[in-house]
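Hi R.,

Here's the input for the flavin-adenine dinucleotide complex you asked about:
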Amino acid sequence: MKILVCISNVPDTTTKITFTNDNTEFNQAGVQFVLNPYDEIALSRAIELTENGNGTVTVINVGEVATEPTIRKALAIGATDAVRINAVARDAYFVAYQIAAFAKDKGFDMILTGRESIDYNGAKVAAMLGELLDIPSVSIIKKLDVDGSTAIVEREIEGGKEVLSIPFPFVAGTAEGVAEWKIPNMRGIMSARTKPLIVVEPVEVKKLSEIVKFETPAPRGTVKLVDAADPEKLIDLLHSEAKVI
Amino acid sequence: MSVLVYVENAEGKFKKSIFEAISYAKAIANQLNTNLVAISIGNVATADLENLGKYGAAKVLTINNDQLKSFVNQAYASIIAEAAKKENANVVVLSNSFSGKGLAPRIGVKLEAAVADGAIELPQTDGGKFIVKKTAFSNKAFAMVEMQSENKVISLTPNSYKVVEDGAAATVENFSFEAKASDFRTMIKEIVRATDKISLPDAELVVSAGRGLKGPENWGMIEELADLLGAATACSKPVSDADWRPHSEHVGQTGIAISPNLYIAIGISGAIQHLAGVSSSKVIVVINKDPEAPFFKVADYGIVGDAFEIVPKMIEAVKSLKANA
Ligand SMILES: Cc1cc2nc3c(=O)[nH]c(=O)nc-3n(C[C@H](O)[C@H](O)[C@H](O)COP(=O)(O)OP(=O)(O)OC[C@H]3O[C@@H](n4cnc5c(N)ncnc54)[C@H](O)[C@@H]3O)c2cc1C
Ligand SMILES: Nc1ncnc2c1ncn2[C@@H]1O[C@H](COP(=O)(O)O)[C@@H](O)[C@H]1O
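And here is the predicted structure with flavin-adenine dinucleotide in place:
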């Protein structure tokens, strides 16, 4: 089995988000970047599926050289090799286009992404890749098993779930439930330094959209505290003041 | 030119989020001085299709056959893109549902369109520009996305736009299109729906609990409160990790993001990763025994105290509120 896992480099989940340059740019100062948690789940599952010499896992990232520590982390967790497309990840379309251009003639059986990147939260790359490669895609899966050259996946739907069978090749965005997060061990960390990481130059992509400004949410007013002895008061406030119940 | 809205059905019925999407799409059509067309795929009663006119879709296209009875991502995307071409629609609107998330990017690629996922407001269209506001950085910020391509695909976050009812019955037309065989490679083996429960992404009211509840055996009061309010239940990540509750209830940065009118957080500390999924709720209520719990900083109402004493009293209060209503 040949698996490609798309990985993105995102601000750590505890990051306080601020902007510079008249709120047009994300302020990276002091921000620690990590492997997107959902991509880590995808990677963990890919490694499980290819255990015991049952295939290879290539990780791919669209990013500048600064993302290499994150790529090395993926190699430490257990990816076989890595590809970096040397460009700023402008938006989901740009990223999907680059990955599709790389993957189209490489014969991957499945391409995994995270359900979304926790920075721009587009949840778009998986389905865009599917469309660009003209293969099936499922955007959010909570379970992934393989039976020969078909995958059985579980997709979340409003108020339930749907079980699908998808023939290879396909793209899927993984969410929690697909695998447990793997922690790299010492041997992994050592071998990651020597695993192959190739750098590929980007192809031209049409620009469709641009983020022109960021806003931060208006701060909420201070909390109105109700005495613990009087929860009836709270229900009353929700009914007559907030008018939500 | 026109605006096209995809009206997703769940087992033949439309949900409120679809009426929101139609109302939103109608407002965009008005902004652009053009008309709105809806497309429905699958088996829906004609009366329900006609009823969509009420929300602003004067014309509804419908297509159904055996293969299209249930959702097939690729085929549905092909049909919607085709309908957009036939109707000369530059703007395609969907609801940002689980299926919508799989469709919008595909339609975007087909139409070489910019895709704004999870829009929360009407676009700004002054000066010939088209700028859509969406959440970013897991609800910690908003991004204003300028859609520069001629075609545009927008998916609307549920619960962020009000349903407007002022139209008359729609005219319903059959739409015909043969999606290619390779669009049907995936097969649905099973659909499991807990029909008696309100689905979390659609819920207007949510009652959520965390590790403060000590164990799964204590969720009875959470479910009772939720049932009384007509709310969905949710939980923090450690709670679903410990299998106290199903993963589908896990909200936050690595769970689902919701924006209900009311979010009641019981025994949840309010870690930044949890807040990422719930901070765009309109009203937040926090019940926590620790006055220093970070959740109080983003709450509108709160009670400092023991959930095991407070929640039963809240249940009684809701009961008497309902009895007096
Ligand atoms: C990469 C990453 C992603 C994450 N993603 C998520 C996510 O998506 N969603 C999420 O929820 N978390 C997420 N987390 C975990 C998050 O950091 C917190 O650990 C988690 O939210 C804490 O859950 P909790 O509030 O239920 O438990 P705790 O932090 O243990 O808080 C329990 C709270 O209950 C209160 N309490 C205890 N007893 C009572 C009582 N009798 N009555 C009233 N109050 C009581 C306590 O005062 C405390 O505030 C993530 C973490 C990481 C590192
Ligand atoms: N710059 C990138 N390089 C490689 N993969 C990416 C990149 N950005 C996003 N992805 C992948 O696409 C998924 C969804 O991202 P998004 O559509 O931006 O929410 C992520 O979880 C990654 O798997």
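One thing worth noting: Residues 2-215 of chain A form a domain with the Rossmann fold fold (CATH 3.40.50.620).

Cheers,
M.
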